[in-house]
Structures are given as C-alpha cells and as structure tokens.
Amino acid sequence: VDKFSIEAVDLGQVYKIKIRHDNSLAGADWYLDQVEVVDVETEEVYMFLCERWLSTKKEDKRIERTFFVK
C-alpha cells in the first residue's frame, strides 16, 4: 500500500481522477487497485475503484487511465 499526501487548493467536489506514469524505468508496470481521496477539512472521502494495470505490456497496454468516483 502506497500513501501520498498532497497539499492543494480546494478542489471542490471530486468526480474523476487521471492517473499515469512515465514508463521510464525497467519494471515500471504497476497494478492500481483503488484510489482514495480525502478532504482533510471536511473529512469527505472519494473512492475510485481501478483494478487495472498501468503497463505497456499488460491488458490494453495503457499507462494513463481516468477513473470516476464510485
């Protein structure tokens, strides 16, 4: 499990996210199960179910995906 904390301006209601990587290193393929975005001020949680590979070798060979809130 990887967790990232990002400080940003108020994003408002989050309804979609785009996730990608640059495929610059060997073994850059990674499986993305889900993404959880938490607004620390309102404690609102946005869940994005992914269950896909970001890979140039697996599934549909895409390293960028857009997901909509669950």
From TrEMBL:
Residues 1-68 form the PLAT domain. It holds the Pfam family PLAT. InterPro entries: Inner_ear_hair_cell_LOXHD (IPR052970), PLAT/LH2_dom (IPR001024), PLAT/LH2_dom_sf (IPR036392). It comes from the Eukaryota. This is PLAT domain-containing protein.
